[in-house]
Design a protein that fits this description.
This protein is mainly α. It contains four helices and two strands. It is found in: Virion.
Length: 188
């Protein structure tokens, strides 16, 4: 396939994705207007920076509710000062009656001392990677977009120079989502 054909194919796919998203844009603009007015609307393509937002909002109940939810979730569940996840292996071991390992019958694999040490070391490595990244700085925006707009498309990149990963949350207008025939998100 030539480069021109690839370009035509990509443009055709983008046009199809725009058509899929178009019916939802007005509703997303309403949500941005009244709930997350810190974001610019989809229709504000060439908006002057510094323009006041939220002046259409009569009551701040929706905005405050989203902020309380986001603050509660990120402060209690996804705090950088808490160990908010742990690795465990499912299933119990079953050995034959004649096996030398029969003393471990009915126990989980992560109860083996060496496996337990490995899982703990892996957890520590994951927490260290999260602390080096911008996860805890950006998770509020991720949760806020998910709760208010209903869709969030975080982009994960590797910063090789600083040996960390970086998460970016593009605006809804920059993302196009499609589903395959089974209803699974598929925008490859």
């Amino acid at each position: 396939m030539s480069d021109i054909d690839k370009l035509r194919d990509a443009k055709s796919a983008l046009t199809a994705l725009k058509a899929i998203r178009q019916p939802f844009e007005a509703e997303v603009n309403n949500i941005i207007t009244y709930v997350t007015h810190g974001r610019r609307k989809i229709s504000d393509k060439r908006q002057n920076k510094g323009k006041r937002t939220g002046i259409e909002t009569y009551d701040s109940t929706a905005l405050e509710s989203v902020n309380i939810f986001v603050d509660g979730l990120t402060g209690v569940t996804l705090s950088r000062s808490l160990r908010w996840f742990a690795y465990a292996l499912p299933g119990k071991m079953q050995f034959s009656r004649t096996s030398l390992m029969r003393g471990w019958n009915g126990k989980k694999l992560d109860e083996f001392p060496d496996v337990k040490v490995w899982l703990t070391d892996f957890e520590d490595a994951m927490y260290a990677a999260f602390l080096k990244s911008n996860l805890y700085d950006i998770v509020g925006q991720v949760v806020k977009d998910a709760v208010s707009l209903g869709t969030v498309s975080p982009i994960l990149e590797e910063d090789v120079a600083k040996e960390r990963f970086v998460i970016q949350v593009p605006h809804f207008r920059e993302c196009y989502l499609a589903e395959d025939r089974f209803g699974v998100v598929d925008t490859n």
